[in-house]
C-alpha cells in the first residue's frame, strides 16, 4: 500500500516595509510498510510540492521549499519496496524584492532492503523560476534515491532580474544503473 501523495498549502511571509522575509516549507511523504513472513513491502509515498511558499517585501526575500519522498519498506523474503518520487516546482515573481533568493529541492526515496532484491530508488525533479526587477538567486536541487537502480534526478533553474545567478544541481547514487541525471541553468542573470 502506498501512502497518499503529500502536498503542502501556500505559506506566505509579508513585510509592510523593506524588512527581510524568509519562508520555508518541507513536505515529507510516508515510508512504505515492512514485508514480514514473506509479505510484500510497501513502496514509499510520493511528495509533490508546487508553489508552497511566497513572500512580499521591498527588501530581501528568501524562499525555500523541499519535497522529501518516502523510503520503500524492507522485506524479509520478497523484494524491498521502491522509493517514492519527489517533485518540487517553485515559480514566483516579486518585482520589488532586493535581493530575491529561492531554493527548490526534491529528494527521492531510497529503495527498501529485501530478501530477494533491493527496491529501486525514487526519482526527483526540482524546478525554480524567479522574477524580480532586482537581483535574483535561484537554485534547484534534485537528488535521486538509492536502491537497486538510482532514481532519476532532473533539476532546472531559471531567473530574471537585474543581476544574480541561477544554478541547478542533480545527483543520484552510484549503486546500480542510473536512469538519468540532468541539470539545466541559465547562469548569470542580468548584464
Largest sheet: 6 strands, mixed
**Helices and strands, in N-to-C order?**
EEEEEEEEEEEEE
Shape: elongated
Which whole number gives the mean pLDDT?
A: 88
Question: Any overview of this molecule?
Answer:
With 191 residues, the protein is an all-beta fold. Helix content is 0%, strand content 43%. The strands form three sheets. It has a six-stranded mixed sheet, with no helix packed on it. The protein has a five-stranded parallel sheet with strand order 3-6-8-10-12, with no helix packed on it. The protein is elongated. The N and C termini lie far apart (52 Å).
Concise synopsis of the structure shown:
By secondary structure, the chain is mainly β.
List keywords for this structure.
191 residues; mainly beta; six-stranded mixed β-sheet; 13 strands; disordered N terminus
Amino acid at each position: 500500500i502506498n501512502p497518499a501523495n503529500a502536498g503542502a498549502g501556500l505559506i506566505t511571509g509579508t513585510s509592510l516595509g523593506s524588512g527581510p522575509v524568509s519562508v520555508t516549507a518541507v513536505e515529507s511523504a510516508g515510508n512504505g510498510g515492512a514485508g514480514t513472513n514473506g509479505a510484500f513491502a510497501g513502496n514509499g509515498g510520493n511528495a509533490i510540492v508546487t508553489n508552497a511558499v511566497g513572500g512580499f517585501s521591498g527588501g530581501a526575500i528568501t524562499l525555500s521549499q523541499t519535497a522529501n519522498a518516502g523510503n520503500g519498506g524492507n522485506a524479509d523474503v520478497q523484494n524491498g519496496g521502491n522509493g517514492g518520487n519527489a517533485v518540487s516546482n517553485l515559480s514566483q515573481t516579486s518585482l520589488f524584492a532586493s535581493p530575491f533568493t529561492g531554493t527548490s529541492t526534491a529528494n527521492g526515496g531510497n529503495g527498501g532492503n529485501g530478501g530477494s532484491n533491493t527496491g529501486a530508488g525514487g526519482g526527483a525533479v526540482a524546478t525554480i523560476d524567479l522574477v524580480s526587477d532586482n537581483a535574483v538567486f535561484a537554485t534547484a536541487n534534485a537528488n535521486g534515491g538509492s536502491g537497486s537502480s538510482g532514481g532519476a534526478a532532473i533539476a532546472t533553474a531559471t531567473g530574471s532580474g537585474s543581476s544574480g545567478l541561477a544554478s541547478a544541481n542533480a545527483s543520484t547514487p552510484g549503486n546500480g544503473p542510473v536512469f538519468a541525471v540532468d541539470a539545466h541553468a541559465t547562469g548569470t542573470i542580468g548584464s
